[in-house]
Design a protein that fits this description.
The complex is a heterodimer of chains A (190) and B (158). Chain A is α+β, with helices and mostly antiparallel strands. Chain A has a single domain (25-187), classed as Beta Barrel (Lipocalin), CATH 2.40.128.110. Chain A has three helices and eleven strands. Chain A has an eleven-stranded antiparallel beta sheet with strand order 1-4-5-7-8-9-10-11-2-3-6. In chain A, strand 4 and strand 5 form a beta hairpin. Chain A is elongated. The two termini of chain A are 38 Å apart. With 158 residues, chain B is of the alpha+beta class. Chain B has two domains: 1-31; 43-157, Nucleic acid-binding proteins (OB fold (Dihydrolipoamide Acetyltransferase, E2P), Beta Barrel), CATH 2.40.50.140. Helices cover 28% and strands 34% of the residues of chain B. In chain B, the strands form two sheets. In chain B, strands 2-3-4-8-5 form a five-stranded mixed barrel. A two-stranded antiparallel sheet of chain B has the order 6-7. In chain B, helix 2 packs across helix 3 (58-65). The N and C termini of chain B lie far apart (73 Å). The chains are: A alpha+beta (190), B alpha+beta (158). At the A-B interface, strand 4, strand 5, helix 2 and strand 7 of A face loops of B.
Chain lengths: 190, 158
């Protein structure tokens, strides 16, 4: 009887010890995202919204990934949406997904366990239209009540991604640099 | 004909052409988005089938389902409700996926159809019609499977 009690206690302590040392909040995943791009020229303002990107953040390594389905960008004007997807512009049938692969370079300054607001420095690559370019931007990470929210705003130069500019409508109505706004909401889970 | 009369006719013709051109331009610029639900369905499939089709050969599947201008195929997918959530645009998202499948089909509803999801229950079978935006794949960077993405969805039958 005494032997069983001791064995159970030891087993119990080992189990508790294992849980105590288990890494906290490893990989965050979400499909609750919003990516907006905005272009302003004298001719007109163009805005498109995408709510279908998938993202992961590894809180141990700082790795950040966003996978963006290009055909989910919606414009107010149907004609603009068709031009955007066409082979003359973003060729979304050939390149259906854009991807951002980055790393939080100041990971030690961010505590995913503690409520608060942190500025993350993110360095990585943005791949779009089959072209990759380095990206180095800031993001704001807010931790509150079991939810981790990440947001960022930055500019990209379309020619970096070999997005064609021909004479006529596209070149006059679309700015050379486009402003990207992104937001993602992650729930803590392992 | 006198020169004056020719000029008058030419001017009238010019005005007519400008008006037609302007109308066409105006119509194109304000052309409404395709009404997905009113569009005839291109393919009827089980969620497992479209997922395995994409995982087997994504290039072939994209060629079949995606359209160059973004007006991709309208599909009806039957599957088991795995999850129901809301996106940042306040639209309901229903994921159809059976336990044995590696990925599912994510169906996003819209303002006019969001309320239809209220009666849906996890575990039930349902058929949803919508437009495909992206296929299923294993993404090595995300280190996970991505679902097929469908938008502008509505329920076909329970």
């Amino acid at each position: 009887m005494k032997n069983i009690t001791i064995k159970t206690s030891i087993l119990g302590m080992v189990v508790i010890a294992l849980f105590a040392f288990a890494p906290k909040v490893n990989k965050l995943t979400t499909t609750k995202t919003h990516i907006k791009f905005f272009s302003t020229t004298a001719a007109e303002n163009i805005e498109a919204n995408n709510y279908k990107s998938v993202s992961t953040v590894n809180t141990q390594t700082g790795d950040v990934v966003f996978s963006v389905p290009m055909q989910s960008f919606e414009f107010e004007k149907s004609l603009m949406q068709k031009h955007f997807n066409s082979s003359k512009f973003l060729d979304t049938k050939q390149f259906p997904k854009a991807k951002l692969i980055g790393k939080i370079t100041n990971l030690s300054e961010i505590n995913f366990e503690k409520e608060g607001s942190y500025i993350a420095q993110v360095s990585g690559t943005l791949e779009m239209h089959g072209k990759s370019n380095p990206i180095k931007e800031k993001a704001t990470i807010t931790v509150k009540g079991g939810i981790i929210n990440a947001s960022s705003k930055f500019n990209i130069t379309l020619s970096d991604y070999e997005i064609a500019f021909e004479k006529g409508k596209p070149s006059r109505n679309i700015a050379k640099t486009v402003e990207i706004t992104m937001e993602a909401e992650y729930k803590k889970e392992n | 004909m006198t020169r004056k009369k020719t000029l008058k006719i030419a001017l009238k013709l010019f005005v007519i052409i400008v008006l037609i051109g302007g109308s066409v331009g105006y119509y194109l610029y304000n052309m409404p988005h395709r009404d997905v639900q009113a569009t005839k369905t291109d393919f009827v499939l089980k969620s497992s089938d479209i997922v395995s089709e994409y995982l087997a050969n994504p290039a072939l599947a994209n060629e079949k389902y995606l359209d160059e201008e973004g007006e991709s195929k309208v599909i009806e997918i039957t599957g088991k409700i795995h999850q129901i959530s809301t996106d940042f645009n306040d639209n309901k998202v229903v994921i159809l996926k059976s336990e044995t499948d590696k990925a599912g089909v994510s169906c996003t509803f819209f303002a006019a159809t969001n309320s239809k999801t209220a009666k849906l229950q996890i575990g039930n079978m349902v058929t949803i019609k919508g437009v495909i935006r992206a296929g299923a794949a294993f993404d090595k960077d995300l280190d996970m499977y991505e679902d097929v993405i469908m938008e502008k969805c509505d329920i076909v039958s329970n």
